[in-house]
């Protein structure tokens, strides 16, 4: 009897241990399943273009966001405090520089007012006072201002200061809402992130902002392991020459950047969605400026389809690493076509995420 009881207890203990192990295993499986679902829902996308195309590329991402119900006009307004701080910081720097120089008596008073005026740009109800706006406008009209801006040795301001000075009257206006250009010029670290959803898929699009040559040193530190890359280029750039670049065009510049991206060892597991935009402008320009003038081997004349396919071929020939490239020829301002296009982009991003997670 005692032996039977012992065995029964031992069997019950073993069953309990097995149940505990199974419960732990089920818990781990559930955790891994939820992690897999989360991975599929969270996708990091990198948007790359030459600096000259960055505003248009940024607008394209905003349209993607709008097309999926995630765009809010207030998001642009959220950049106002940062832009105001940049403007005020550099405005006070320029005031300190000119205080010892010859300016009109009225602008001496404007300088004092600008330096002494207390401003809380973080307040939700903040607006520039009309008197401050007039002081900025009058000071900007001084002849010495452009002289100082052209001489960096005597004026120490941020790299984006000249842009915001030029837009100062608009920025201090009561109805001011930042533009895409304004937002791009606030990108001190070289990256702007945009978040939105495509159905169950959460997308984070990171746009590299700044000079091409500087990107190669740090781009892999930020973006190694991204799900997809959106590369934006303009078809109509084929005749736009780059100043001081030996007669090369903006399209040449895009091709060089594309080549460095698709053949980078950091992106060998990443696919590229290639946007060739401005097809309408390209169609009109072909009749005025022959594509063969810049690419003598092209023989398609003014046929827009042949011209676009030729430029696409130039891009695809650079893909020596043979990574997946999904090309799309479109018009960034054509919202009706973009909606259909974004569905394709969503599917591409999702497929890439599934491949990366090992589900395909």
Automatic annotation (TrEMBL):
Task: Fetch the InterPro entries from UniProt.
Answer: Fungi_Gprotein_alpha, Gprotein_alpha_su, GproteinA_insert, P-loop_NTPase
Q: Which domain of life is it from?
A: Eukaryota
> Quick one: signal sequence residues?
none
Instruction: State whether keyword Lipoprotein applies.
Output: yes
Which residues are noted in the entry as Mg(2+)-binding?
56
| CDD domains reported for this sequence | G-alpha (cd00066)
Q: Please give the Gene Ontology molecular function terms for this protein.
A: G protein-coupled receptor binding; G-protein beta/gamma-subunit complex binding; GTP binding; GTPase activity; metal ion binding
Which is one Pfam family of this protein? Answer: G-alpha
* Residues holding GTP: 332
The family database entries (SMART domains) matched by this protein are listed as: G_alpha
Q: What UniProt keywords are attached to this protein's entry? A: GTP-binding, Lipoprotein, Magnesium, Metal-binding, Myristate, Nucleotide-binding, Palmitate, Transducer
Gene Ontology CC, one term? cytoplasm
What are its GO biological-process terms? Answer: adenylate cyclase-activating G protein-coupled receptor signaling pathway
Return the protein name. G-protein alpha subunit
